[in-house]
Design brief:
The chain folds into two domains: 7-106, Cytochrome Bc1 Complex, Chain D, domain 2 (Orthogonal Bundle); 119-199, Orthogonal Bundle (Cytochrome Bc1 Complex, Chain D, domain 2), CATH 1.10.760. Helix content is 52%, strand content 0%. It contains ten helices and no strands.
Length: 201
């Protein structure tokens, strides 16, 4: 068996750097409430303890489907999905940790994201979503189901980035569904869809 003793220090250093960087951006909502899994303290630095991220580059986890959250954590740990902040954190999580975190954040109440949309783009995004039958997977109110994420009220910037990543195949842990849909989208359509979905509550 190969010597992997060098991996742990590297993971620990990366995790420490990630937590410090995120903690610098965290707000007063970060303190984990009573009853929260211990690992929430790490997540809270970027997502807040209730999963209502105030930084639009970090997704809102509150109200997300538990199955989706669990599968994404598994994918980060297994290397099927990548993010410089999430990779080192997921590497430290056990399956039990992932289940506990997924359950916790799925039960938190999503708060308004503070985004002010462009009404014309929202309407164009709604029409595009209807034309592409997005509701077949994400449901009519984009609340998600099982391994299909809730995207209603998600941060505009985060939605844009994910659609762009799917289109460019920088993100491929979707079974091919989103990469196929996003491959046909123009920049304007991605903007419109992000405006529409971020506007939903």
């Amino acid at each position: 068996m190969p010597d992997r003793s060098f991996v742990k220090p590297a993971v620990i250093v990366a995790l420490a750097v990630t937590v410090v960087l995120c903690a610098a951006r965290a707000d007063a909502q970060s303190a984990p409430p009573a009853g929260a899994p211990a690992q929430v303290a790490i997540c809270a630095a970027c997502h807040t303890a209730t999963g209502n991220s105030t930084n639009p580059m970090y997704p809102i986890l509150a109200g997300q489907t538990a199955r989706y959250l669990y599968l994404q954590l598994k994918d980060f740990k297994a290397g099927r999905r990548h993010d410089p902040s999430m990779d080192p954190i997921a590497a430290t999580l056990s399956p039990e940790d992932m289940l506990a975190l997924a359950e916790w954040f799925s039960k938190q109440k999503p708060m308004p994201n503070g985004f002010t949309p462009d009404p014309a783009k929202v309407d164009a995004g709604r029409k595009k979503a209807e034309a592409d039958l997005c509701s077949m997977c994400h449901l009519g109110n984009f609340s998600g189901q099982n391994e299909i994420p809730r995207v209603a009220g998600q941060h505009y910037a985060y939605i844009r980035k994910q659609l762009d990543d799917f289109r460019a195949k920088r993100r491929t842990n979707d079974g091919g569904n989103m990469t196929s849909v996003a491959a046909t989208l123009t920049d304007a359509e991605i903007d419109n869809l992000a405006q529409y979905v971020a506007n939903l509550n």
